[in-house]
Specification:
The chain is α+β, with helices and mostly antiparallel strands. The protein contains two helices and five strands. A hairpin with a 4-residue loop joins strand 2 and strand 3.
């Protein structure tokens, strides 16, 4: 009788503990995300944006996307100027509800005029 009660209790505890762990989000479930990406809840995310350095990371193709001389480039490695940087220290934003291949359109609509952009600034002269 004790084993009959103990088994469901142990099974319940294991299921509850497992549900508290991190949930990995990726287009391919077998591929873990990079070490700097640690999701805290279930989300549908394809791109991650680093606003400080204006670089996107595509979780499905595992490539970095950035502007290089006015052209959007995809590479598996960071640009040489950022390879020595630790991305864990940079702030990032999850791009929710955008799964298309062309990140240029999303960038133009949402991030073109923030941070280090070519936004014109009007200054008052005193």
């Amino acid at each position: 009788m004790k084993k009959f009660i103990l088994f469901p209790l142990v099974l319940f505890v294991l299921l509850v503990v497992q549900a508290c762990g991190p949930v990995l989000v990726s287009a391919r479930l077998g591929d873990p995300p990079p070490p700097w990406f640690y999701p805290h809840r279930v989300e549908t995310v394809r791109y991650v944006f680093f606003p400080d350095i204006s670089i996107y990371y595509d979780l499905s193709s595992r490539t970095y996307i950035y502007l290089d001389g006015g052209i959007w480039v995809r590479h598996r490695e960071l640009p040489s100027r950022y390879r020595s940087q630790d991305l864990n220290r940079y702030r990032y934003e999850r791009v929710r509800n955008y799964t298309e291949d062309d990140i240029q359109r999303y960038h133009q609509e949402n991030n073109a005029n923030r941070g280090r952009s070519n936004k014109t600034v009007t200054r008052r002269s005193n």
